[in-house]
Amino acid sequence: MACRHEDCRYDERGWLPIDSEVANTVRHPHCKHCGTVRNLFGDSAVGMGYFMNVLSSMKRRGGKVIADSQIRLISKKLMSMDDFEDRYWMRRSIQEEVFINTVSKYCNFSQNYIKSFL
């Protein structure tokens, strides 16, 4: 992460539309350093530990074999991505898509098999 995000004060929050059929607005906090608006609604990002736990459960409970070297390659690939864990603008659905594509690349598992562990 390039910026260590820090919320602005409540009176500095900007009015932005929310995801709904009705045109409503709500105050969104933003980073007072870089200006990135924090995602308040929907699927917010999760930390790298979540995905490491998924890999661990795939190794323990899965019917298919996954080696420690494959887990290391997957974790290095995910950690090398800029802002993968950024909870301000990254969505969990995008994280899961990247995770599924990375695991299927290194382990040759089907996407449905990987989704069953998420």
Structure description:
The model has no long low-confidence stretch (mean pLDDT 80). The protein is mainly alpha-helical and 118 residues long. The protein has 4 helices and 2 strands. The chain is elongated and about 55 Å long. The chain folds into 2 domains: 1-41, no CATH class; 48-115, no CATH class. Helix content is 41%, strand content 7%. The chain starts with 13 loop residues before the first strand and ends with a helix. It has a two-stranded antiparallel ribbon with strand order 1-2. The chain has helices spanning 48-61, 68-80, 92-107, 111-115; strands at 14-17, 25-28.
Uncertain runs: none
Shape: elongated
Q: Over all CA atoms, what is the radius of gyration?
A: 17 Å
Number of DSSP E strands = 2
**Largest beta-sheet details:** 2 strands, antiparallel
Distance from first to last alpha carbon:
24 Å
Q: Helical content, roughly?
A: 40-55%
- Bin the strand percentage: 5-15%
- Count of domain modules: 2
Tell me the number of helical segments per DSSP (H or I, 4 or more residues long): 4
The SSE string, one letter per element, is EEHHHH
- What's the rounded overall pLDDT mean? 80
Strands of the biggest beta sheet: in what spatial order? 1-2
Query: Pairing-aware structural class of the strands and helices?
Result: mainly alpha
